[in-house]
Structures are given as structure tokens and as C-alpha cells.
């Protein structure tokens, strides 16, 4: 029987297996016909990310490449950015991306329609800008979604292991080793014939580390347990290097396991040791902070050389894509960020960006378009990529305020 008590306004209902099922209204995801971007209205919460029309598709100042973005690989840095917990001003979220070149300065080596990957400014959008020295041609062996899992992770590992002078037979501990950097370090370490041990949280992450050949793993949630587990794995030996992204007692535990002259590479951003604390507590070891954004600013061509090397090794099957889970930007962006925040996956979270036209090259006419709904419709068209627009009316004139607003055209539209 269908119980209708308290449902005087009920219009439709279905009885199924003793349950009353009724239709519910919910907010539909936004539907955009033109260019879009993921905009962060204010730092502090993942819910502050919203999809909105992208006003233009021109390369920004200081950039010589414009990409039609196809995929973006998220990093934990992006979570800290959105939550307002990243030091300094990190700019818009996102960075690792792959896309098709749609505009390039004559001095660059990139042709229109080429597919490139690397560090891209504000890539969570239909179109985004980059500098040619922060990009490399996409390797043939990897898809756009796959290749955007590796720029920051592989470059970080490459920098850390190069500076630590790791070689065959070296032993390195990688904290949070089931994440992107950790899995990349495992692959890189095996290529070097080095030995890797790691830390991880959930049981399925420890299983993942065993599958990729990590010698052994301990807890990434309890520093004391991690230190004891590491000591058991090493026996009488000591570590040659540590790659750390954790904080608090994990740092001290890692230094305790390092040999004299061993290298501690810090890639974390919160609660990290200062140089003075290292000098006071572990002076017999080497402390090295890895910050890709700083390295890119100081030596831009280093990033280009690193990405080019990455692409060469990918085509030689030395570097492979990280495990990934992908989400559509327009309807699943919040879920993507929450998945990464919750540490629910191994590998990388990737956001796909659907291909969209930048608007018709023809002329659009709006009758009754100089005021009211017609004027709003014209503005809506311009924001979605229309470049030539006619606003027609009996009077044929815009008000002074509307004319000032439309001078130059919203989104670059010509009237």
C-alpha cells in the first residue's frame, strides 16, 4: 500500500518493495555551449570551485603558447592551494597539463596542431597559456590523459635522485609511496637498479607497493611505527637517501635512518624543518629542499630539458603513465578534488576537459537586442565565443551605459 499521510501536495509517487518513491528536484549541472574554465572564487573550501564561461582564448602576457587543453593532472599542491594552506600566492590551481597548440609565436619550435605537455598556467579551462620552455612535445607512447600524470611527479623524482647521486645498489625510502611521486620514484629507482622502501596508509596501498617492487613498506600514519618498520627492513644497514612529503616525527625518523652523508630530499610544504634545525639535529646528513616552482623560475630551460628527457624515456618504455582515475571538469570537478584530498586512490587524479568550439565565425543577430533580455542575450553570446554580433532594434541605439560597457565587446566580440 502507498502511504500518503503528510503528502497532501504529492503529485506523483511509486510504490516499490514497500518503499514510497517520489520525484525530487535537484540543481542541474551547468550547461555551457562555449568556452569554460574552473574558477576559484575564494580560497578556503573545495566548494568554491565553479565552472563558468571563459571570457577569451588569447595567450596571456609573458606567454608564447596557447593550448586547447585536453587533460590536467592534479597534485596535492592544488588541494592546498584551494584550501588556502599553500605558502605564498600559488596562483590558480592546476599546472600539469596536455593540450593541442592553437597559437604559437614564430620563435618557438611548436607548430599549430602539435600536442604538447608540461607546466601550463591556469590549465583548468578550455584554453590556457604556457611558455615554450615549460613544455615538450607529447611522447607518442602516452595519451594526453596519461602524459599529464607525469610532469611534476617525474621531474621532482628526477631532481631529487640526481641531487642525491643515487646509483645501482643505493637504498632510498620514499614516504607516501603509493602517491604519484612515490610510484614514479619506484619506477625510476628500478631503472637505476636501486633499492626502495616506502611508507603508506591503507592496506590496498601497501599491496600496490608490493606490486611495483618496493622492497617493503611501513606506516605513513604513525612516525614511531614507521621508524621501527624501517629499522626492521634495513637491519644493520642505513639509508642512502630519503624522499619526504610527510611532517612531524616522520622527518626525525628519516634522519635517524640515514647514513652519514645521506641525502634527505624534502618535497613537503607544511611543518618542514628549517636549515638551522637540520644543522642542530642532523648535521652529518645533507638536507635538500625540492621546489619545482622555484627551480622553474630560476632556470626555465632546466624544466624544458627535463620534460624532453621524460618524453624520450617514455617513448623508450622507460617511463610509463601512473595509474589514474579521470573526471569530467564540468560536472565532476568537486568529486575529483575530494577524491585526491581523501587519499582514496593510488597514482593520479586527472580532469578531462571537453573540446568546445570557440564560437561561430559567422555573424549573429539579436532582434530587440539593445535593451533588456535582448541585451543580456547578446552579452551571453559574446561570453561564449561569438566574435561578430549584431544587436538590432527599432531605435537602433544602445544607451550610453550599455555602449560604454560594450566598447570593445565582452569577450572580444565586435559589434
Automatic annotation (TrEMBL):
Q: Which Pfam families match?
A: KR
- InterPro entries named among the record's database cross-references: ER (IPR020843), GroES-like_sf (IPR011032), NAD(P)-bd_dom_sf (IPR036291), PKS_KR (IPR013968), PKS_NRPS_Biosynth_Enz (IPR050091)
Q: Which organism is it from?
A: Prymnesium polylepis
Q: Record keywords: Phosphoprotein included?
A: yes
PANTHER family listed in its UniProt record: FATTY ACID SYNTHASE, SI:DKEY-61P9.11
Biological-process GO terms, alphabetical: fatty acid biosynthetic process
Domain (Enoyl reductase (ER)): residue spans on this chain: 44-351
Query: Which Gene3D superfamilies does the UniProt entry name for this protein?
Result: Medium-chain alcohol dehydrogenases, catalytic domain, NAD(P)-binding Rossmann-like Domain
For this protein, what is any one GO molecular function term? Answer: oxidoreductase activity
Keywords assigned: Phosphopantetheine, Phosphoprotein
What is the protein name for this chain?
A: Enoyl reductase (ER) domain-containing protein
Going by the entry's taxonomy, the superkingdom of the source organism is recorded as Eukaryota
Amino acid at each position: 500500500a502507498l502511504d500518503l499521510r503528510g503528502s497532501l501536495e504529492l503529485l506523483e509517487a511509486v510504490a516499490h518493495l514497500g518503499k514510497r518513491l517520489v520525484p525530487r528536484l535537484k540543481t542541474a549541472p551547468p550547461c555551457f555551449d562555449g568556452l569554460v574554465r574552473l574558477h576559484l572564487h575564494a580560497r578556503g573550501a573545495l566548494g568554491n570551485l565553479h565552472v563558468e564561461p571563459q571570457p577569451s582564448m588569447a595567450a596571456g602576457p609573458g606567454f608564447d603558447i596557447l593550448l586547447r587543453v585536453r587533460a590536467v593532472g592534479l597534485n596535492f599542491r592544488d588541494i592546498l592551494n584551494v584550501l588556502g594552506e599553500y605558502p605564498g600566492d600559488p596562483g590558480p590551481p592546476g599546472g600539469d597539463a596536455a593540450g593541442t597548440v592553437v597559437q604559437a609565436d614564430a620563435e618557438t619550435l611548436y607548430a599549430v596542431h602539435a600536442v604538447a605537455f608540461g607546466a601550463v598556467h591556469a590549465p583548468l579551462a578550455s584554453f590556457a597559456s604556457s611558455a615554450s620552455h615549460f613544455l615538450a612535445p607529447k611522447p607518442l607512447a602516452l595519451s594526453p590523459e596519461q602524459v599529464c600524470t607525469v610532469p611534476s611527479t617525474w621531474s621532482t623524482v628526477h631532481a631529487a635522485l640526481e641531487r642525491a647521486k643515487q646509483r645501482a645498489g643505493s637504498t632510498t625510502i620514499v614516504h607516501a609511496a603509493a602517491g604519484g611521486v612515490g610510484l614514479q620514484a619506484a619506477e625510476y629507482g628500478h631503472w637505476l637498479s636501486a633499492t626502495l622502501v616506502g611508507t603508506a596508509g591503507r592496506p590496498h596501498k601497501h599491496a600496490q607497493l608490493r606490486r611495483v617492487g618496493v622492497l617493503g613498506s611501513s606506516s605513513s600514519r604513525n612516525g614511531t611505527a614507521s621508524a621501527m618498520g624501517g629499522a626492521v627492513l634495513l637491519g644493520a644497514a642505513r639509508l642512502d637517501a630519503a624522499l619526504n612529503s610527510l611532517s612531524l616525527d616522520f622527518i626525525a625518523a628519516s634522519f635517524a635512518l640515514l647514513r652519514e652523508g645521506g641525502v634527505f630530499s624534502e618535497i613537503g610544504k607544511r611543518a618542514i624543518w628549517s636549515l638551522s634545525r637540520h644543522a642542530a639535529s642532523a648535521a652529518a646528513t645533507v638536507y635538500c629542499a625540492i621546489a619545482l616552482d622555484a627551480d622553474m623560475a630560476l632556470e626555465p630551460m632546466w624544466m624544458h630539458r627535463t620534460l624532453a628527457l621524460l618524453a624520450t624515456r617514455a617513448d623508450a618504455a622507460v617511463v610509463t603513465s601512473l595509474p589514474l582515475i579521470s573526471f569530467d571538469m564540468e560536472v565532476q570537478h568537486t568529486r575529483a578534488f575530494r577524491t585526491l584530498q581523501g587519499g582514496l586512490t593510488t597514482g593520479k587524479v586527472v580532469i578531462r576537459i571537453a573540446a568546445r568550439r570557440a564560437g561561430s565565425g559567422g555573424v549573429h543577430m539579436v532582434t530587440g537586442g539593445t535593451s533588456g533580455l535582448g541585451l543580456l542575450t547578446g552579452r551571453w553570446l559574446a561570453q561564449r565565443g561569438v566574435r561578430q554580433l549584431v544587436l538590432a532594434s527599432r531605435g537602433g541605439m544602445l544607451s550610453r551605459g550599455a555602449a560604454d560597457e560594450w566598447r570593445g565587446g565582452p569577450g572580444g566580440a565586435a559589434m
